[in-house]
Amino acid sequence: MLTRRRFLRNTAALLPAAAIARANARAVSPPIPLGVQLYTVRRQAQQDLPHVLEQIRQIGYQEVETCADNYTFAADALRHIIVDAGLRVPSGHFNYEDFRSRINYASQLGLEWMVCPMIPQSMWGSADAFRTAANQFNDWAKGAKDLGMRFAFHNHNYEFAPLQQEPGATVASATLTGYDILIENTDPELVFFELDCYWVAQAGLDPVRLMRHLGPRLRMVHLKDRAPDSSPSFVPDAAAAHFVPVGRGTLDWMSILSEGRRLGVEHYFVEQDQTRGSPIDALRQSYRYLNTIV
Known about the structure:
- This protein has one domain: TIM Barrel (Alpha-Beta Barrel).
- It contains eleven helices and twelve strands.
- The protein has helices at 4-11, 17-27, 42-59, 75-84, 103-109, 127-146, 178-184, 197-202, 207-214, 253-263, 279-293; strands at 34-37, 63-66, 88-93, 113-116, 150-154, 162-163, 176-177, 191-196, 218-223, 225-226, 243-244, 267-270.
- The strands form three sheets. Strands 1-2-3-4-5-8-9-12 form an eight-stranded parallel barrel, surrounded by five helices. Strands 6-7 form a two-stranded antiparallel ribbon. The chain has a two-stranded antiparallel ribbon with strand order 10-11.
- Strand 2, helix 4 (75-84) and strand 3 form a beta-alpha-beta unit.
- Helix 3 packs parallel to helix 11 (279-293).
- The longest helix has 20 residues, at 127-146.
């Protein structure tokens, strides 16, 4: 019987090197699509994006999520670079400050998801500011939907800092947080969430419990691990940077992935904001670990 593995071996001599790498990567691809948030390799991508994407595909990743640093390319050019590397691009991050002006760009890039990764720091401590952000999200989500896309918000840790409880607050909890406000004041049919597991844990919370709370509004997950003996915090500053490759830290990935499957999470992106060595090596370590448990 001509198995896939034997076919790859027999045809290797007929394929260019890049095609061989892509074929081998597909042969060991995990059952759920694993992707990379390109912020992880932002510096390397500025120098040679096609080469970086080829390295990502050789590891075995199937998708990428773009970030603001990638948008120096025209949308059609960026899409061709990604597709030529054998990757899909279902999602992209766009800054709060110029989000609306990027909706057409995102559509031209062929994205399924537009993600706001952060609200401005000046808004972090105010319940009214979070309500303003929620209204913006509703508006942007309608604009994205009109062009066949969906909208999601990506968390850090600042959203989980307790805010002063206000008279008449409808959130049934001892403390009100910005994240509570975003959930309550956004349209559940339009506004979804991309959960960054690291930043949830850095805020001292359990990612799995939050996944269950979000339920069907959770559509994407960032896979990012946290070093042991790290102190929690509510500010995403240098003191909160305890990043390690997935599987080298303290997060319960078996439970996170199991809950993700139950909820029908659509995309999983590995991200590491900072790495001590090569970001590509860190992505390789994360992939090898995840490939053993997915």
